[in-house]
């Protein structure tokens, strides 16, 4: 199984990156763009693995079998550095540290590869620190930047990178990936691919986590039980609770795995009191996890808004009789009844209210207040 198998529906991109990996002089800076769920980070890791692949035949690089491929895909290859932040934006100090690391020679492979996730989270001042490193990179360093679209990155950076555009994969391709890779039931995989709108990460979670499916079902059914202002206020609090529960569920397993990995790496004793140096490292990790938790809640709230929007998207589809497939096909009868009680203008107004709430949530507004205002607008 090659490193490209987790990129469904990206045949043109795989071909482009395969040719680059086989080259002896690949471009030194790349910009991977695509909508959420298109697999930008997966593509970046796969490309890094192919660049470092130990296959002697250049055309076979990205085999997925050699040690370099395994370690690059798992995140343990010393020559692949992934720059990520759980905060709203990268700090200048973070970027300076990574620019310094980029000057190091590869430890074992042909290249030192610097992957920057969410490059759009850089302020202009911070981006200027990165610009010089991309303009004048060391001879064996390759930069891979990931962002939702080219417009999310400063033109000075964009002009110095080779573009790679990923698209939202077809629903059927995502479903097949879930069956093949995660062992999901085919019917459940089809459902997850459809309601996630082909977002690979969300689809995987829905296909493998029953509680995640139940939380989503509560979200999309919420408009069906709004009868008055009191219902709207209760529903707003419920949405915030769902987002918090979803974020906690996503973080819990990851946090524990990070803690155990750190203890193993530091050689911590299995029983007894931990030495001061190890306790200090654990405290630092816990602080990082708390900062990440805030971002996780923000992302979960945004996902709640997206799922809620799919309800009204389906209602509008029925009202306009477009014949387009419903995202929430499992609610067809309820959606048809709801669509018959209002017109397209009201539905568009409700979708606008959700979009406005998403915008407010990106600022420092109280999530409960933003949700209450939105829920009242849905009446």
UniProtKB/TrEMBL annotation:
Keyword Transferase attributed: yes
The enzyme's E.C. designation: 2.7.7.7
UniProt GO molecular function: DNA-directed DNA polymerase activity
Keywords tagged on the record: Nucleotidyltransferase, Transferase
Broad enzyme group: transferase
Keyword Membrane belongs to the record: no
Domain AAA+ ATPase residue range list: 26-226
Pfam family, one: DNA_pol3_delta2
InterPro entries named in the record: AAA+_ATPase, DNA_Rep/Repair_Clamp_Loader, P-loop_NTPase
Name of the protein described by the UniProt record: DNA polymerase III subunit delta
Source organism: Arthrobacter hankyongi
